[in-house]
Automatic annotation (TrEMBL):
Domain Cytosol aminopeptidase: start-end pairs: 340-347
Lineage of producing organism: Bacteria, Bacillati, Bacillota, Bacilli, Bacillales
Keywords on record: Aminopeptidase, Hydrolase, Protease
Gene Ontology annotations for the cellular component aspect, listed alphabetically: cytoplasm
Membrane-traversing stretches: none
Membership in a protein family: Belongs to the peptidase M17 family.
Function: Presumably involved in the processing and regular turnover of intracellular proteins. Catalyzes the removal of unsubstituted N-terminal amino acids from various peptides.
BP-aspect Gene Ontology terms: proteolysis
Protein name: Probable cytosol aminopeptidase
Gene3D superfamilies cross-referenced by the UniProt entry: Leucine Aminopeptidase, subunit E, domain 1, Zn peptidases
Species per Swiss-Prot/TrEMBL record: Staphylococcus devriesei
MF terms in GO: manganese ion binding; metalloaminopeptidase activity
């Protein structure tokens, strides 16, 4: 928990002073603290390599003043002419991780030393807010030896007092990412589809977000044949969670956000290898990230309508499980020959997308850890985006991803794949191809169910999790595409 205070002039008596240090100190103007001009001293410290201007490099030293001695913590800003959003993520990520490691509980940050020639102070403080949450996230709910929660009183000194709202917006986004991470991290024996649904409902009770849950029996009786098929091998029945947030007039067409919520993907009868199965609790990251996006949109009070649809199921093996060669009837009324039970994501999404389309959305965005093939194509750190009738919107979203430091690239849907998804001897569609291009096939299958509605499919199999710690936080779930989509929704 970081508690922020704003003050304009009167300096708070904390033992720690935090300053940003650029390559050329004169770019900052004077660094004034109380009645001291620290500019020369900071430059001397830098000259003697006691502190650093290298981008994101944190240093700590002593700052003797007339009446008191303080601890000075600096973070390098590099060249202010080129300092961009990604750089700021690094600056504040490294800073907050340092403050936490050093158990600093009280500090004053001279915000007016954090400037860029490219980015406004509003945006800079938003990044600070974002990183105060995102960068120091931990998940130790299932450790006996829990870390004492980190507490910091951070006094922000700035001449610009209207910055507080921007700081809060950054904090909201950071907390939404951490909410998504929390759901993703819960072990799969606990986070079953119904537990997931109940926790989402619990989280949004007494908010503007309405939550509706369809349980396994309801899904069966209402014709969600593909979600039911995937979930029926598990003792934990599937669920469909619908979230609605109305920030605009009730009759305005919503944006639909659809999430793959496979709480565990064993592969089913098309079973995964023992190594392939590890980490498959993360097969609900798409759904968790949709929850995070809606959390942020509602707390930011965005003037739009959103409908969130999460299809949740556990992909398991039992007497009752689906098996290759089975045929199921989708909510759309079409029949699907199920040739590979490990291609379960596109099945649950087929019904979820068809259902979302009934809300007559402006556009559908779906998020899914859908294929290993997307990782083969783009590597572990990039999202594969596919557009169906959304040529302009995908360009906007790709630009938003670049601005938000998330890696996202477009892959195509062509007539080749349109033919392949129909290549079944017995049914209308088939869920699997033995050929190459498996990410494209899956994307085509999923977007088939939205017809001509603009639809962008996000295959986040790679970036949903990260194998390494960074200035964005610990290894594990990342909240992939939350900042990209929010930035797009806000503009
Ligand atoms: N959840 C997996 C995709 C996945 C793999 C996500 C690795 C993250 C890391 C998905 O359900 C799956 O099993 N896809 C198969 C599809 C195949 C059977 C056509 C795959 O990619 O191997
Ligand atoms: Mn699978
Ligand atoms: Zn899966």
């Amino acid at each position: 928990m970081i508690n922020f205070n704003f003050n304009q002039h009167e300096h708070i008596d904390t033992g720690v002073l935090i300053i940003g240090v650029p390559d050329h100190i004169n770019q900052l103007g004077t660094i004034q603290y109380k009645n001291h001009d620290l500019t020369q001293r900071i430059d001397d410290y830098r000259h003697h390599h006691i502190i650093h201007n290298t981008l994101g490099k944190v240093a700590s030293t002593v700052l003797p003043l007339e009446s008191e001695t303080k601890r000075l913590i600096t973070v390098g800003l590099g060249n202010l002419k080129t300092l961009n959003y990604t750089d700021l993520l690094k600056v504040f990520g490294n800073l907050f991780q340092f403050l936490k490691e050093e158990h600093i509980t009280d500090a004053e940050l001279l915000f007016d030393t954090f400037i860029s020639k490219q980015i406004t102070q509003d945006k800079i403080i938003e990044v600070l807010g974002l990183q105060s949450e995102q960068a120091i996230y931990i998940f130790d709910n299932y450790k006996s030896d829990k870390k004492v929660p980190y507490k910091l009183d951070l006094h922000i000194t700035t001449q610009d007092t209207h910055l507080e709202t921007h700081l809060k917006q950054g904090i909201i986004v950071g907390q939404s990412i951490n909410l998504a991470r929390d759901f993703s991290n819960i072990p799969p024996n606990i986070l079953t589809p119904s537990y997931f649904a109940d926790e989402v409902a619990e989280h949004f009770k007494e908010t503007k977000v309405k939550v509706d849950i369809k349980d396994g029996e309801t899904l069966l009786s209402e014709g969600f044949g593909l979600i039911h098929a995937v979930g029926k091998g598990s003792i934990h029945p599937p669920t469909l969670i619908t979230l609605t947030y109305n920030g605009a007039k009730e009759d305005e067409a919503p944006i639909a956000l659809v999430g793959k919520g496979i709480t565990y993907d064993s592969g089913g009868y098309s079973i995964k290898s023992k190594v392939g199965m590890q980490t498959m609790k993360y097969d609900m990251c798409g759904a968790a990230n949709v929850v995070g996006m809606i959390e942020a949109a509602s707390r930011l009070e965005l003037p739009i309508n959103i409908v969130g649809v999460i299809a949740s199921a556990e992909n398991m093996i039992s007497n009752n499980a689906m098996k290759p060669d089975d045929v199921f009837t989708a909510l759309s009324g079409e029949t699907v020959e199920m040739l590979n039970s490990d291609a379960e994501g596109r099945m649950v999404l087929g019904d979820a997308v068809f259902y979302a389309n009934q809300f007559q959305p402006r556009i559908i965005l779906d998020f899914a850890t859908l294929t290993g093939a997307a990782i083969v194509a783009l590597g572990e750190d990039k999202a594969a985006l596919f557009n169906s009738h959304a040529e302009n919107e995908i360009q906007e979203i790709l630009a938003s991803a670049r601005a938000m430091d998330e890696l996202a690239f477009e892959l195509p849907i062509t007539n080749t794949e349109q033919r392949l998804i129909r290549r079944s001897d017995v049914a209308d569609l088939v869920n699997h191809t033995n050929g190459q291009g498996k990410a494209l096939f899956a994307a085509t299958f999923v977007t088939h169910f939205s017809g001509t509605t603009p639809h962008i499919h996000f295959d986040i199999a790679g970036p949903a999790t990260t194998p390494t710690n960074s200035f964005k936080g610990p290894k594990g779930p990342t909240g992939s595409m939350i900042t990209t989509v929010l930035n797009w929704l806000r503009n």
